[in-house]
Each structure stands twice: as structure tokens, then as C-alpha cells.
Amino acid sequence: MEFSELIYTGRAQAELLRGGEAPRLRGTLCVTGHHLLLSPEPQSTPDLWLLLLRSVDSVEKRVAGDSGTITLRCKDLRVLQLDIEGVETTLDIARSIEALSSLESVITSFPFFYRPKGLRLGDAWHFHPPERYYKRVARETTAWRLSEVNQDFSLCPSYPRAVIVPRTVDDDALARCARFRQGGRFPVLSYHHAPTGTVLLRSSQPLAGPQKKRCAEDEELLAAVLACGPPGARGFIVDTRSAQAAKQARLTGGGTEAKAAYPGWRRLHRPLERGRPLQESFMRLVKACGDTEQSMDLWLSRLESCHWLAHVKEALTTACLAAQGMEREGACILVHGTEGTDNTLLVTSLAQLILDPLSRTMTGFQELVEREWIQAGHPFQLRCAHSAFSHTRPKHEAPTFLLFLDCVWQLSRQFPLSLEFGEGLLLTLFEHAYASSFGTFLCNSEKERCLCEVRTRTHSLWSALNQAKEQRKLRNPLYVLNPLTIWPSVEPQSLRLWQGMFLRWSRPPESSEVVWEKVWQIVAEGEKTEGAQPTASASA
Amino acid sequence: MGCFLRARLSHSWELQEQRVSSMAAASTSKYNSHSLENESIKRMSREGGNQDLSETVPRLPGEMLITDKEVIYICPFNGPIKGRVYITNYRLYLRSLETDSALILDVPLGVISRIEKMGGASSRGENAYGLDITCKDLRNLRFALKQEGHSRRDMFESLMKYAFPLAHSLGLPNHHWRITFINKCYELCDTYPALLVVPYRTSDDDLRRVATFRSRNRIPVLSWIHPENKTVIVRCSQPLVGMSGKRNKDDEKYLDAIRETNRQISKLTIYDARPSVNAVANKATGGGYESDDAYHNAELSFLDIHNIHVMRESLKKVKDIVYPNVEESHWLSSLESTHWLEHIKLVLTGAIQVADKVSSGKSSVLVHCSDGWDRTSQLTSLAMLMLDSFYRTIEGFEILVQKEWISFGHKFASRIGHGDKNHADADRSPIFLQFIDCVWQMLKQFPTAFEFNERFLVTILDHLYSCRFGTFLFNCESARERQKVMERTVSLWSLTNSNKEKFKNPFYTKEINRVLYPVASMRHLELWVNYYIRWNPRIKQQQPNPVEQRYMELLALRDDYIKRLEDLQLANSAKLSAASSSPPNSSQMMSHLQTQF
Based on the domain organization, do A413 and A504 belong to the same domain? Predict the structure, then answer.
């Protein structure tokens, strides 16, 4: 389909209100296939204003007299208002935005057309996280191997081509395990904790069903995991569902690992909210944050009734539990829920941040997101199809990735020096997960990305972020390597609403940005002077 | 800081008069002292190397540029010279901008004895508008400025502030306000300070008559005057209106006199801190508020801040949900049910209204509650903190507390119950704590605006109860005087001032003339966890603040690099002058390359 068919009126005179302190912009509004453009009248600012249509979450239109108003609520939680001359024009433009912002086709999306200056296609796509991570594991232990059993994605469509498994388990056994796990997601290594020699694994639920089926290879695999661990290692299976829900899953063919079948393993249930309730919690929170009418005195109970902070607390608590098992009890941990593509990843990635200093570096964190979310098959396209403002009934949408980012933010607030990246990176990842000019968060799995040739036909967000000019926005200038485990406090008093995210567009007059600016200046001055020193002595 | 710097660097005086003749070879003798003139003429020597002296203002360690401005220096010897003046926290430095003169003035601020404005915005004649600075070293410096947009204000205020750091002068007395000694022996009002500032044209007899109509004789007196628009904040207690609706001509006249100290304003704004219901109820006990009929030129609003009993109960509830165990299951709604943050919001909102009225020049403001020593102190001091950057320094904040709370008779002894075993005394209330909490909320919202840090506030609160210092003992100044507190005790400020580094906010950026309006919305107010829940071992307590700590490290590291760079440059220039051209020692180079940042 041609975009032009969806553009009913291409041009209009309009005025844009961006909220906060940003000045109004007046000028000519244009709708293109992927963008909304406003070229301001010559006397005002010369900069072109540009909005990726994909980032529009909902469109509301209102007409009065001979003009109209369109309110655009964006996926990054911004609210924009366009005052447009002409009733017909307004309605046409609103229709165009609605249609163009919700196109489902991946290969006609903007990343396939975006060719930014200074970046080369294919850059940064070449890093293959599982392979790269395996190199690190191989330096630490020989008990694990890289298997390419999923080379053609036939075993598990949501796994990458290569996965890390116990050396003693061969590919045939893996194939049989895959058949016993939902979506083929058999247990694979997520993280090897070198200090204690324990491991973190993830999978989906076993397909035990009402007859409590068993699978010898699956049992052997988990036994092999314990054998790889420290002598006498125990194992914990952290199930992200309640015991009740896990039991009920048997009726639909799923279930849990039977105790007798997996000696040495113990099951723990830590129910985490997912799917629609989580999405609704997000929507309620955003609504509460944007509500200027309500009596402010009831803010705290309203915030509480959104339950968002409770979800943050539960996610961090479960991650701490997994980390504690590995660090303090010398135990191996397997995490799964139902599909193993949402809360499972939330828990494994947070546990790594808590335990592993390398994952708290700029590169380490990017690799963690790539490996534990994108490659691990978190269905970004489904989960992030809509954000908090959408009027359509949520289907597969859920802000699990945002919840992860919020938890990371809580860690960064409690350990302000221990993460090499700052709030800027988290906000950027949130924006790009929901709407992006880059291909990084496209599709639901590695398999789909291969089919769409995302790697060769779009640019990677990582290479854009790693340009020198972006660093100031993304890095934490106070960072010092902290080799220790960072145990967060999960008391409700220690967890805060992430104002930088949820009150981003209505923040207090002066936020901590001023402080960061000062720190950056000092860091830059220090680096400059340090750089000058050898030169000075060389000139002697 | 200014004083300290000045004392430490007094020897640099001698460097002040320097003259480098254009004829002299710069390399041999750089400075020839000439003591007959105070102007130093510097000319760049053509062989003087590439170091462009004309671009730099000499800077001592710790010296900071405050402001700079283009001026005409009216030299009594050579006539007007166009130049740029730089004011630092240590000196006034002027460099000529004219090509044929290389005049330099370098005057430490300690030399200044008096600063006067000359001419007004409408003065005629060339160079009639500007500043005249009288120096202790027998000279005067006259600067003329452009007659537009208050061009001298910035320079005048910076000089006043840094040349006379001891007196943060509100410019009093002036034509409209006088200092009265009517309360010298606390005979007018025993809970007020000895010195009071009142409208110029109100006599002491008038004041005595006003006192009869104000609860506990706490008459309206000046707290703060806006340096530009001359609107004021005045504080007092409630009028004794009573059930019968009594009036007092002197009080009415007095409020009008306050209003008229600024001719531009037609209404005096009265902020009654109480909820209107309570104000009405107070009539039953002889109190009340200013009625519209009696006070034609005043506009009264109620700020809905509750009384000491409500605040005490609210804090009790806070304690219940945080100690010993923190209420976990419904933390936010439990917190809401204490209403503590709601009270904080109302106090801040009230103070913002006061500050806004005065800052906009729309009206002068009179603040009272019932007795004018609890809510009134909160409102005036918070408004002053928002309006006047001086009070955001360590020293300024101490003065603010000393003035608006201690001198004006906030009943510390009764509110805290120093030494009293009667724990259920209804007179006790955490009013001062609530004020400090409001200050903390402002600190959070303006991380660079305050010279002090969270630790400073916690320390003040700790010693509010400790009784180790005399600062918060007794209820008022007269009692303190009777008990000879000044002679018999040490002040808390002597502790804080001798440990200033510990209490400094490293992110502080000096700003003059900036009014801070915090966001007093529940969304942006937070429970002060580091104070209220500090005893709970499960709450992460990081003291000193790791961010501040790390920033100080970075600062130190940078200074170290700069110093080493300077040393190297010095060593290099020494080597160069020794005409040695040996290649650099490679191992020495490596050691520099390896230093980590």
C-alpha cells in the first residue's frame, strides 16, 4: 500500500503547543509517510519540528467554528496540541495520523528508510550477544558450551541461533527438551556468576499437562546444571506465577516441574503481574500523573492504587531472591513463568545487574539488553504496540520492559555511583522500544528480524548511541567501578515514583539536570587538563 | 569566605601596584612598583611571549568571578576611560578597553569603605549616573554607567555583598523605615527583640497604642524589604477584635502607614495563616482578624494552615507508621493519612504567595496567625528564603533562623519542652521541624541554590533537642538576656561555622536576585526519609551523601591536575630558559600517561 493513499490532506497552517515551557510554534504542517513536520514561519525559530508518526499513541480531534484542534498523545507520554485552520483539513489530518501511526507492516516502517549521516548500515549489528557472552563464560568455566542447535530457528522460534547449555548435554537431548517446554524454550544459561560458580538459567514452563508428563532429557539437563555448579550445589526454580496459577496451567498443557523428577531442585513461587493488569496499572499511573484536575491531597492514595510501585517492588524482590540464591547460598537458579519471554527476562536481567559489575557498565548494559531482552525473544512489537494513552483495548501490550527500566532507575537512585549510565539512557531505551527510527527493537524475535533483514536494512540504535556526541546525555559522570553486589532496598520508602519518566513533561522548574551539567563540566575540565599533561612534558 | 580569603592573602596587597613600562624589557623586570599612583599601567611587551595578559583577570585560589560590566572609569588624573570592571569575591578589577591606554585597577574589596550611588535614572549630563566608591586607602573610584535598565544594580549589589559580608544590609534605616528602641528593655513586648523596624512616620507613642490592640503586644514590624521595589514583609499577632468587633484607630492608621511606605501600592495584603474558621473562633477569646470595614486599604486572605495541636498529632502519626517498623502494605495511603505532607504543602503554598506578592511589587504583605510566633515565623522565613539568595548561604540561613525564629520569640522552650518532664504538654509542637522540612523540600527542588546540604539541616535539628548549645534555649530574647545565655552558653552556629566544609553543598552556584518558587504540589513533595526514617537499619542511609562526596573527589582531582599542569609548565619554562634542549624523559612521560581520571 502506498502511504499517499492515507494522506488525505498533506498540508495545513497550524500552531503547535508542546506543553511546559516550550514556546508555541506557528507554521506549515505537513504529513508525510512517516512523519509530521512543522516548518515554522520565518520570523520564529528556524528549526523544523519533526515527529515520528509511529510514536503517536492516540489522536483526539475537536472542531469549532472554522478551525480544529488535534491532541496527540505520544508513546513517550508527551501530550501535543495542534491548532489547525479549516475543519475539513483538521479531520483529514487526524485521519491520516491515525492511519499512518498504526501501520502494522514492519518492512515499510521508517527504520527501513532512515539513513542518518555518520552511521554505516550494518554497524553494531555484528555483535552477536550469545556468542560474545559465551567467550566470557568460557574464560570462567569449561562446563558450558555454545550450541547452534537452533541455527534455523526450528527448535525454538523465539530463541537466537546460538544458546549456551551444559557441555554434557548434546543437541539431540536439547531437541527433546525443547519439545517439553512451551514455545521450545528449553533451559539455557543466562548468567554465570564466577565468584561462586553458580548459574542463572531461564526457560518457559514445562508441558506437563494434566497427566503430569515428564521428560527424561529435561530432567537430565537440570541435573547436569547442578553438576556444573559448585560441589553439592542445590537448585531453585523461581516460578514467576503463584503456586495456584502454576497448577492451573496444567489444564492447558503447561505446569511445573514435579518435585520428585528433579532431585536437588526446589520450586519457589513469586507471582509477578503481567499482561493486561500490568498494562492497566501503567495506564492508570500515567493518567494520574497527567491529571491536573483531581484534588491533590489524594495523590498518594491514588498513586498507591495504581499499584505500579508494588510491581516495581515485586520485580526487585524476586530478582534479589535469585541473586541471593546464587551469591549467598551457592545455588543454581532457573527462572520461568509461562512463556518465559516477559517476567522471566525481567528477573534474570535484574539479577545480573545486582550481581555483575560488568553489566553495570555502558557496554555491559547494552549487551544485557540486547542479549536478555532482544535476542532472548521479548516480543517488543506486540508488547510495545501501544503505550498508556491508547483507546484501543490492550491485546498483547504490556510494559514489562518499562518496568525493567524503572527497576534499573531505582537501582541507580540507591547506588548513584555504581552504574556507568544515567537516566538519559533509560529514557532513550523507553522511547525507542515504543517508536524508533532504528531497527533494534523491531519485531518479536531474532527469527522475525532475520526474515525482515533488519540487520542489513536498518541502522542499529547502539551505534547511534555510542557516538561521542551522545555520551553526555547517556553516561553517569559520577561512575566508579563498584566490584560488589548491589543489594537494593525494596522497602516502600526506598522506592520512588520515577519522576524523570512519569512526570517528565511536568517537572519542577529545576531538576537534577543542572547538577549533572556541573559534574560534567568538572569531568571535562579534569580530562582536558589530564590530556594536556603529557603534551606539556613533551614540549620540554 | 570573603573575609578568610582576604586575611590569608593580605600580602598580595603589595602586588597591587604594578607597572610595566612599554619601554622596559618585559623579560628582565616584570614588575616595577610605583606607589605614587594607584593606577597601574600595563603594556604588553612585544617580546612578552604569547601569553595574552589582557585576556586574564588575576585569580587567587578560591577566588570567583561574580560579575563584570562595561563602565567609564572617571580617572581624576586622566579623565574618563572606557573599561570593563570585573568583581570577584576578593577584588574589583578594571581593565581599560581603550587602545591607547592600558590602565588596570586592582582593588581588594577589603579596601572599600563606602559605596554610594550617584545620579538617578533621569540625571542629565555626561557620566552623571553611576557609583562612587570611597576607599580606606585614601582614594575614591568613580564609575559611570549607561543610564538604562538598572545597569548599576548588579554591580552595586555584588559590591555591597562581598565588600561588606558582615552586614547583609537591607538598606535600613531609610526614608520610610526607622529603627526604634522602644523595646530596648522589652517593655513594649516581652517576646519581641530589642530592636524593631517600623514606619518612619509612626511615633513610639503610636506604637504603644497599637500594642494594646495586638495579641501579646506583638505589633506589626518589618521582617524584610525588597531592595528594588521597596515592598515589605511585616509580621505581627492577631488583632484583639473580640466578639464585639472592636476597632482601633491607631492600628488602622498604622497599617495604612505601612502600606504608604511604598506609594505605588494601593492595597496592603494581609495573610492570616489560619483557616478562616479558626480565625473566627478566636474572636471568642478576644482575638480575631482585620475586617474589611475597619481596614479599607487592606485585603485579607486566609492560608488554611492548621494550629500547633494538629501538627503535633500529624507528626505522631508519622512516627507511628515509621517506627519501629515501617508500615509496608499500604505505605502511601498510610503516609497520606498522617496529612504531614499536606501540611507541608500548605505552609509552602502560603510562603509562595507571600513571596510572589512582594517580588512582583504588587503589594506589601502583613503576616500573622494567632500569636505570630509559629505559623508566622514559618511563612516569613520561608518567603525570605525564596526571595533573598543571601539566606540560602550557611551564614545567611543562620541569620534567618536567629532573626525570624529566635529573636521574634518562637517559643522553643515550650514547643520542644526543654528539660521538662511533662511529655504530654499541649504546648509542644514540631513547628520548627516543619519549617526545616519545607527547607529540605526546597533543597530537593533546587539542588544548586543552597550553600548548605541536608546534613546541615539534620545537625540543626539534632541540636534543637540536644541542649548542648544555647541557641534554642528559652522562649524569647528577654528571657535569654535575663539568663545570660550569650555569656553562659556556646552558640550552635559556632559549631556549624567551624565545620563549614562538612555542611557545604558542593553543587551550590551563587546567584543573586533569583527568586525561587518551589512546586508545592503533592506530586513533587516527598517524605524526608533520611530524617524521619533514619533509625531504621533497613532503609539505605548513605551519609555523607555519595553523590556530593564523589563530586568533591572529582573537583579535587581536577584541581590536582591543574596544579600539576601548572608545575609542569613552570618547570618547562625554567628548562627552556636554561636553553637545554634535551629530549623528554620517556619514563617520566609514561607516569603522566598512566594517571587515571
Answer: yes
Q: A314 vs chain B: nearest CA distance in angstroms?
A: 12
Q: Which amino acid is at B596?
A: Q
**Is there a catalytic annotation at residue B476?**
no
For chain A, say whether B535 makes contact (Cβ under 8 Å). Answer: no
**Grid cell for residue B592:** 603522566
Q: Are residues A264 and A322 in the same domain?
A: yes
Q: B54 by DSSP, 3-state: which?
A: helix
Asked if B551 and B506 touch (Cβ cutoff 8 Å), the reply is yes
Question: Is residue B60 within 8 angstroms of chain A, CB to CB?
Answer: no
State the complex-level ipTM. 0.89
Question: CA of B325 to nearest chain A CA: how many angstroms apart?
Answer: 11
Spell out which residues of chain B touch residue A298, defining contact as CB-CB under 8 Å. Answer: 336
Among A490-494, A516-520, B336-340, B361-365, whose mean pLDDT is lowest? A516-520
Q: Which of B189, B236, B369, B476 is catalytic?
A: B369
8 Å CB contact between A160 and A394: no
Q: Under a CB-based contact definition with an 8 Å cutoff, are residues B256 and B285 in contact?
A: no
Share of chain A above pLDDT 70, in %: 93
pLDDT, tens only, B585-594: 433 333 333 3
What does the pLDDT read at residue B572? 81
- Note the pTM of the prediction, 2 decimals: 0.81
**Closest residue, chain A, to B574 (C-alpha):** A540
Instruction: With CB atoms and an 8 Å threshold, state whether B527 touches A478.
Output: no
Instruction: For residue B448, list chain A residues with Cβ-Cβ distance below 8 A.
Output: 510, 514-515, 518
Question: Helix, strand, or coil here: A509?
Answer: coil
Q: For testing the chain B interface, which of A493, A499, A503 should be mutated: the one with the most B CBs within 10 Å?
A: A493
Burial label, B577 (beta-carbon count in 10 A; 0-12, 13-18, 19+): exposed
B597 and A309: CB-CB below 8 Å?
no
Which pLDDT tens digit goes with each residue over B381-440? Answer: 999 999 999 999 999 999 999 999 999 999 999 999 888 888 889 999 999 999 999 999
The answer as to whether A279 is a domain residue is yes
- Same structural domain, A32 and A163: no
Amino acid A452: pLDDT: 92
| pLDDT: which is higher, B2 or A418 | A418
Q: Which residues of B are annotated as a binding site?
A: 307-308, 369-375
List the single residue in A296, A300, A529 with the smallest CB-CB distance to B333. Answer: A300
What average pLDDT does this structure show over B297-308? 96
pLDDT at B19: 26
Question: Do residues B248 and B286 lie in contact, with contact meaning Cβ atoms separated by under 8 Å?
Answer: no
Minimal CA–CA distance to B234: which of B219, B250, B249, B252? B219
Q: Could you give phi then psi for residue A314, rounded to 5 degrees?
A: -65, -40
Give B 394-453 residues with CB within 8 A of chain A: 445-449
Q: What is the residue-wise DSSP string for A366-420?
A: HHHHIIIIITTT--HHHHTSS-TT--SPPSS---HHHHHHHHHHHHHHHSTTT-S
Top pLDDT among A185 and B227 is at: A185
* Per-residue pLDDT at B164: 72
Residue A534 lies in a domain: no
A510 contacts B448? CB cut-off 8 A: yes
Q: Within an 8 Å CB–CB cutoff, is residue B527 touching chain A?
A: yes
Q: Based on the domain organization, do A150 and A15 belong to the same domain?
A: no
CATH of B65-164 given 2.30.29.30, 3.40.140.10, 3.40.718.10, 2.130.10.10: 2.30.29.30
Q: How far apart are CA B32 and CA B53, in angstroms?
A: 17
pLDDT in tens, B211-246: 999 999 999 999 999 988 899 999 999 999 999 999
Q: Which residue ranges make up each domain of chain B?
A: 65-164, 177-541
Rounded Cα distance between B191 and B193, Å, is 7
Look at A414 and B540 and tell me if their CB atoms are within 8 Å: yes
